[in-house]
Structures are given as structure tokens and as C-alpha cells.
Amino acid sequence: MTILVAVSGWEAGPWVRRLQELAPQRRVLETGIDGVFAGDPVDLEDVRYVLAWKPHPELLASLTNLQVLFSLGAGVDHILDLPALPSTLTDVPIARIVDADLTARMSEYVAWQVLHHHRQGFAHARLQAEHHWQELKQPAAGEVTVGIMGLGVLGRDAAEVLCRLGFRVIGWSRTEKTVDGVVTYHGKTGFDVFLGQSDILVSLLPLTPATTGLINHSLISRLKRDGPLGGPVLINAGRGGSQIDADIAAALADGTLAGASLDVFEEEPLPPESPLWGLTNLAITPHVAAVSSPKALARNIIDQITAFESGQPLQNLVDPARGY
Ligand code: NDP
Ligand code: OXD
Prior knowledge:
This protein is α/β, with parallel strands linked by helices. It is 31% helix and 16% strand. It folds into two domains: 2-97 and 292-309, 3-Layer(aba) Sandwich (Rossmann fold), CATH 3.40.50.720; 100-284, NAD(P)-binding Rossmann-like Domain (Rossmann fold, 3-Layer(aba) Sandwich), CATH 3.40.50. It has helices at residues 13-22, 57-61, 77-80, 100-118, 121-129, 153-164, 187-197, 217-221, 245-254, 294-309, and strands at residues 2-7, 28-30, 47-53, 68-71, 94-95, 145-149, 168-173, 183-186, 200-203, 233-236, 259-262, 282-284.
């Protein structure tokens, strides 16, 4: 039962080594960093499982005996949005990563950025650069409302961590949710009430037609304006396709947003000429909020394959019609 690591932009080597360490009896093939398979095409007939990150559609189309497609990320837009998703994949289940390691990394990023804005990280860095000792007025966490868009695996965990830090946390999702300590809203009707209370808006949404371009001028202008941080703050670690970079740049420049942290962008890597790079109230990270670690996640996938082969149902299946 051959496994193929089909990744573009990532090195396959660390995944292959870890998979072989955990399952030495299995054959593991890999693509180059360009996502292209350089081996004998005949070998692809034995491939039953693919571990994918931005896989090439032609490569997927040539896998006639594929049984499960595993996304190496929590998001699956990199598979579902392929310009030509092969028809051979129609009946192949797609499973995504849900793992404590990935979840903890995301909550770490969210807590880091929320605290950075809450504790006035940019202002303190400016004062330090000026060698200027000045005490800034600091609100308590309980005076700040963090609104989380997306109450899935990652959003719920981040909410729990932020509640523990003392923030007032509210959440928004597509369908109704109950999360301890969090006031929740859902759908179109709850959206404006949710936005109007958010001092810090965190997006952990998947990219779907409904979330594409959602974080735009209109959304930003509906955030709470009179909170204790001197204006609303935006943090996006979901997908760049959910935001309009130019609207965020304009809002940061004219004060509609007091600050922002972006881990994801409409175009990645963020082009050097993007005006976002020059904004002093924006914290940029290169899509690393929660990286997929071969050490942790290869174990997760090998366990899934072993359970699947012993007749147990696959976990964390994606609904292609829903888009996540
Ligand atoms: P889940 O599928 O567990 O959760 C998605 C959440 O988004 C659900 O609560 C869902 O609502 C909500 N949602 C989806 N569509 C809408 C909509 N139209 N309106 C309102 N809410 C909506 O995903 P995860 O929490 O595991 O991951 C979330 C995303 O984070 C991934 O899809 C990926 O894009 C991103 N990510 C980014 C990383 C990074 O490093 N920057 C790393 C890992 C993930 P409902 O529950 O009602 O269905
Ligand atoms: C993911 C990501 O989806 O890293 O896991 O973006």
C-alpha cells in the first residue's frame, strides 16, 4: 500500500523520513518541491494514499487506485480549488488534519498577536527606539472583547485560551454553536451584532465562496470603534482569500483600523511591492501561524491509515460541497 507525499513549495523529505520511521514496511514515494513526480509512472499505480499540500491536478489524475487523499493542512482549499480537480477523485474521501500539535500552534499565534495589540507592542517598541521612558495607560483584558470568526477546531481552542487570559470572547460561525464562556452568534443575522462588539477581530475561517473577500472595507467599518484600544484591531490567520489586502492597507493608513496582524494574504508570498510591508501598525508573518510538523502529523496520518485498513471509519472528513 504505497503512500505518496505530493507537495508543492514544501520539502517532501522530512515527511518521507518520518513516515518511513513510523511505518518501515510501507513504500513511500515523493514529489520534488515543484510538486512533480520524477519516478517511474508505473509506481503510481500502487499509490493508495496521498499526503497533499497544493498537489498538481495532473499528478492526482494519474492515481487510478487512490483510496484516501489526506490534506497536510487543516484547510483544504489548496485541493478543492484546483483548476481541474480530476474526475477520478470524485469518490475519493478527503481527510484533513486535526491534531493537538497544529491546534496548539494556532492558539499560540492567536494569543501572541492578541496580547501584542492589547499590551501595545508597537507603541512600546517605538518608545524604546526613542529611548523614551513613558508609562502607557493599560486596559485590563476583561475590558477588551475578542471576536473570533470560525468556531471550528482552531477557533474553539483559541477562544478557550483567550478566556483563560481574561478577555471577553465572542464567536461567530455558520451554524449555531455552544462554547463554554463564549457568547456565540451565527449566520447573516448574528453578524452585525457580533462585529459591533469586537475590539479585536480574529479570523480562523476556511476559504469558501461564502468567505471569499469577506474581510473588506464594509466589514472593517462595522467593527467596534469606541473600545479601549483606540480603534479596532484585525488578526487573520485563516486564509488570505478571505481578505481584501487593499482595504486593510487603507484602513490601517487612515485609522479605521488601529492595528492588524496578518499571517495570510491574497497573494503568497506577499509581493515585495505590497504597501502592507511599510505599515508600522501591522505585524506580518509568512503563513506560519500553525505550520504542519512532520514529526507530529505523520503519526496522526499513519494512525488514520492503520485504523482505515482495519475497517474503522476515517476521521476529519471534508465535505467538498460545503468547502471545508
Ligand atoms: P473547521 O472546519 O474546524 O472550522 C471552520 C469554522 O468556520 C466552523 O466553525 C464553521 O462554521 C466556520 N465557517 C465556515 N464557513 C463559514 C461562513 N460562511 N460563515 C461563518 N462561519 C463559517 O476548521 P479549523 O478550525 O480546523 O481551521 C480553520 C481554518 O484555519 C482552515 O480552514 C485554514 O484555512 C486555516 N488555517 C491556517 C493556518 C495558518 O498557518 N495560517 C494553519 C491551519 C489552518 P460551522 O461550525 O457552523 O460549520
Ligand atoms: C493549514 C495551513 O491549512 O497551514 O493547515 O494553512
